[in-house]
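User: I'm putting together a teaching handout on how sequence relates to shape, and I'd like one worked example. Could you take CBS domain-containing protein from Flagellimonas hymeniacidonis, show the sequence you're using, and then write out its predicted structure as tokens right after it?

Assistant: Happy to. First the sequence, then the structure tokens directly below it.
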Amino acid sequence: MKKNVPVSKIMTKDLVTLTTIDDLVTAEELFKKHKIRHIPVVEGTSILGILSYTDLLRISFADAVDEQEESVDTMVYNMFTISQVMARDVISVSSKTTIKEVAKFLAKKEFHALPVVDDGKLVGIVTTTDLINYLLDLY
């Protein structure tokens, strides 16, 4: 197994992002369109927080959300803003952080995505799915 491989090798670089001006309807549409579970919330190239699909499920009624459904029921979403729902105190890693370090960190924490930030600029995101796919590629 390769050691000291930087997370830049497996992170998602082509990011889908939101701003605090966007609404939760837009967020759910992006989650479904891109089949993703985490979206960084940015201001310019700086990260402000992360919105997860689980965050949306918490404020909506989980049994009313159909992942296959393209349309979105907006009534609950209109009661909240992205700023109110997103995780704010996000921990980030640099693109030089090793995959092993990221794996250890995610294994200990209760979240499943880390923004990758170099010199204050968001350059990617790494998720538990990225780690699993990396391991699968090794076998």
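A couple of points you could highlight for students: The first strand starts at residue 38 and ends at 43. Residues 7-138 form a domain with the CBS-domain fold (CATH 3.10.580.10).
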